[in-house]
Predict the structure.
Amino acid sequence: MGSPLLKQNNMKTKISLLLILSLLSLKIGAADYVDDINNATAKNEAGHQVIYEMNVGMFTQAGTFAAAQARLPELKQLGIDIVWLMPIYERGSSGSPYAPKNFKKVNPNYGTIADLKAFVAAAHELNMEVWLDWVPNHTATNADWVTTNPDYYAKAGGQMIHPNNYNDVWQLNYSNS
């Protein structure tokens, strides 16, 4: 009979070894999966495309559409078919991309509407799609509509509602036509 301490150390060693082997197999499996996608004959069919979600402000040091556009060929070379842009709208005071101030304006830190259109055109030239991440169920608490159209918002007891306790946004009311 071995000592309890020796048995405990053996168990820890076995668990550590299993964990390492599991992580190694995940790494190998992920690399094989990427190769399978990039080498697939049906790669461009629906369901077989590679999507890259991009936060424009964090993707390059400049954080602009123009700087991101310059890197599109690099993404294409990696096998990216679709660039999914996180919200590109003018942001409310919290700075969250999911707290838009105005759905008709781009974040001025990223550039202009013309810069966004140039980014999309460059992506299309590379046969890449561009998707916009849009969350239409709320706006920033300092959004333009808060003062111009307060009737757009859900209310309880006469007060606008923060959805899911997100204090930087107000819930839109789609029941109010």
